[in-house]
Amino acid sequence: MTQTRAASFLAVLTALLAVLISPAPASAASLQEVTGFGTNPGALKMYRYVPDGLPAGRPVVVALHGCTQNASGYGTGSGWLQLADRWGFSVVLPQQQAANNSSTCFNWFQTGDIQRGQGEAASVAQMVDRQLADTGGDASRVYVTGLSAGGGMTAVMMAAYPEKFAAGGVVAGLPYGCAQAAGSPYVCMYVGATQTPKQWGDRVRAAQPGYTGPWPVLSVFQGSADYTVKPVNMTDLMRQWTDVHGADQTADVSDTVAGYPHQVFRDPAGRPVVETYSLTGMGHGQPVDPGSGSEQCGTAGAYLLDVNLCAASRMGRAWGLS
Prior knowledge:
Blueprint: H1 3-21, E1 32-34, E2 45-49, E3 60-64, H2 71-78, H3 80-88, E4 90-95, H4 119-135, E5 142-147, H5 149-160, E6 167-171, H6 178-182, H7 185-190, H8 197-205, E7 217-223, H9 232-244, E8 253-257, E9 260-266, E10 272-279, E11 286-288, E12 304-306, H10 311-318
Parallel strand pairs: 3-4, 3-5, 5-6, 6-7, 7-10, 11-12
Antiparallel strand pairs: 1-2, 2-4, 8-9, 9-10
Helix pairs in contact: 8-9
């Protein structure tokens, strides 16, 4: 073997050995179940996603799945896990159990599950406390969001535990106390409840008597062709939370985002406190926009609808997560 060929062979061999003995790349973060997070009166399961190397002091997002969904599928499909890696925050993913609801819907309509210190609402609150303790998360930057029944439970958490959440995002969901106001969850979903803004606001204020704020701000996403949760519920959510914030029901901003009508409602101090997105022609589901672009996230699937707008991304930017 000539000296040149020997040197070449040695270089190749050295490179091969370097590959063989180099450490394997660190595995990506994965969804983990957490047990023993509290008394768990609502008998829910807790899952969480913490990006590898996440430092202390980062925000926490609670993401509540819809009926027939589960924590893993919703976390991935909605885009929240993708954004957690991109922007650096952790995600709590409560999961309903069939023993509580045969369709695995969160029980946003059951009085015993929507009051402070009781049922499913208390279980989710305990998950937040556990996540903050375990990750050293920023307690002033905790957010809650969900789809459909998860959206209804989002409004529950904002009302029953307002001190825990800086903001909430309701997707195809319902205002707090809607089933009680309408006399039935189905009337609430398909028709809506007849309440004035003050009556809606009073339902939130009654959830924690004596609490004067600050209240979570709200983003709402609703398909205009949703026949499972009628668009009137977005209007009622707007009425409820503008009243809670002392704002009127006249939009201060009316524009379009990705071609869809978008409105912003400001409180007397000029702070945006409610925003609404009406997804023209969209049915019942979570808006997603699959892709690798800076505004894109999510994966299309059942109740995960590709409408060229990712609700999770819009919420996250509004909340300062990006």
